[in-house]
Amino acid sequence: MRVIEVAAGIIHRQGRYLIARRKPGVHLAGFWEFPGGKREVGESLTECLQRELLEELSVSIELPIPYQIVRHDYPDKIVELHFFRCAIEQGEPVPIGCEEIRWVSPEELTRFRFPPADQAIIQALQRDVLGASR
């Protein structure tokens, strides 16, 4: 079975994270996600994330910091998601490659419908907040 590598950005600003809703007609349409996309041949994961965020949101990011890797098996493919923490360096996000975007607190993440592969990241981000507040 083929493995698809995806780079996703955990974009943070003032205690909130940027999430995007997938457009109708695409795999997992209507689900919310951390923005990013598929790695192209010859591209590093960092380059992939920078390109995808520019294409999808019209923003440039600071150097992304690896956060966590999640591998998820779907019936027809395996997706390996490489999550990176990052901040916007230039631009204000605009929903070009997605239906809509929102800035949400870690606690609010559970109110949105995310793909199964993202659940571990949501839990980790919420644990990070709990650990920082103690």
List the helices and strands and how they pair.
Blueprint: E1 3-13, E2 16-21, E3 32-33, E4 36-38, H1 45-57, E5 60-61, E6 65-73, E7 78-86, E8 88-90, E9 100-104, H2 119-133
How would you characterize the overall build of this protein?
By secondary structure, the protein is of the alpha+beta class. The chain has one domain: Nucleoside Triphosphate Pyrophosphohydrolase, CATH 3.90.79. The protein contains 2 helices and 9 strands; from the N terminus they run ββββαβββββα. The strands form 2 sheets. Strands 1, 2, 3, 4, 6, 7 and 9 form a 7-stranded mixed β-sheet that branches. The longest helix is centred in the last third of the chain and has 15 residues. The termini are far apart. The model has no long low-confidence stretch (mean pLDDT 92).
Helix content: 10-25%
Domain count: the total is 1
Q: Name the CATH architecture.
A: Alpha-Beta Complex
CATH hierarchy class name: Alpha Beta
- Oligomerization: single chain
Supply the key terms.
134 residues, alpha+beta, Nucleoside Triphosphate Pyrophosphohydrolase, seven-stranded mixed β-sheet, two-stranded antiparallel ribbon, 2 helices
Question: Quick summary of this structure?
Answer:
Helices cover 21% and strands 37% of the residues. With 134 residues, it is of the alpha+beta class. It has a single domain, classed as Nucleoside Triphosphate Pyrophosphohydrolase.
